[in-house]
């Protein structure tokens, strides 16, 4: 396949995530469709995380991300209508964008995976999809209300990937954040 065709295909995939010209990963806003299915998030992705707030503002990190549908939606401790529906791993270096490293990013233990996709569904509303990064933040048996976090909030989802914003902080410290894009790799 000619290089020009490959570059055009890659550019088209990125354009759907960014909504126009500019860099390969731009901020997206909005809410998911009420019928959005996180099953489309299963697979292998190239993750780009852009820091726009915090000590690492202006930094960009690229990583691989692998997500699998959980054999059954796993309920989260202390939360109604909230389930971890996908589990996964990543080789992201959170510190490179000023995010908190909650450890175990390559851990594939369903009770505390390296990456967990948490979905809250409320009748008549779009699903709220949060990707928790780091095994200390994905434990389902602990209701964490005071601790470090690194979370990606999905605002756009389609067959080619997903995108949104992210935030991370430790208690008593300033918050880091920005936006992210995940583009599907392979088939």
> Average pLDDT value?
81
Helix content, binned percent: under 10%
Biggest pleated-sheet summary:
8 strands, antiparallel, barrel
Give the overall shape.
globular
Could you state the order of secondary-structure elements as H and E?
HEEEEEEEE
Task: Describe the oligomeric state of these chains in a short phrase.
Answer: single chain
Q: Regions with pLDDT < 50 over 5+ consecutive residues?
A: 1-23
Structural class label: mainly beta
Walk me through the structure.
The relative contact order is 0.23. 9% of the residues lie in helices and 41% in strands. A hairpin with a 2-residue loop joins strand 6 and strand 7 (161-169). By secondary structure, it is mainly beta. The model is unreliable at 1-23 (pLDDT under 50). The chain has one helix and eight strands. The longest helix has 16 residues, at 3-18. An eight-stranded antiparallel barrel has the order 1-2-3-4-5-6-7-8. It has one domain (3-184).
What distinguishing features does this structure have?
disordered N terminus, eight-stranded antiparallel barrel, globular, mainly beta, 187 residues, single chain
Task: Kindly summarize this structure in a few lines.
The chain has one helix at residues 3-18, and strands at residues 43-53, 60-75, 82-90, 115-120, 128-133, 149-158, 161-169, 176-184. The chain is mainly beta. It has one domain (3-184).
Ordered list of secondary-structure elements with their pairings:
Elements: H1 3-18, E1 43-53, E2 60-75, E3 82-90, E4 115-120, E5 128-133, E6 149-158, E7 161-169, E8 176-184
């Amino acid at each position: 396949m000619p290089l020009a065709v490959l570059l055009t295909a890659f550019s088209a995939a990125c354009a759907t995530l960014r909504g126009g010209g500019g860099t390969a990963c731009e901020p997206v806003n909005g809410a998911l469709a009420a019928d959005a299915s996180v099953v489309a998030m299963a697979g292998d992705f190239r993750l780009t995380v852009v820091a726009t707030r915090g000590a690492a503002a202006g930094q960009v990190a690229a990583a691989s991300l692998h997500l699998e549908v959980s054999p059954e939606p796993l309920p989260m401790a202390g939360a109604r209508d909230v389930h971890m529906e996908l589990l996964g791993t990543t080789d992201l270096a959170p510190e490179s964008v000023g995010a908190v490293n909650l450890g175990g990013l390559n851990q594939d233990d369903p009770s505390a995976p390296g990456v967990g996709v948490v979905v809250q569904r409320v009748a008549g509303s779009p699903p709220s999809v949060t990707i928790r990064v780091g095994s200390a933040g994905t434990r389902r048996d602990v209701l964490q209300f005071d601790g470090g976090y690194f979370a990606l909030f999905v605002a756009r989802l389609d067959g080619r990937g997903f995108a949104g914003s992210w935030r991370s902080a430790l208690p008593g410290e300033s918050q880091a954040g920005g936006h992210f894009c995940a583009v599907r790799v392979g088939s």
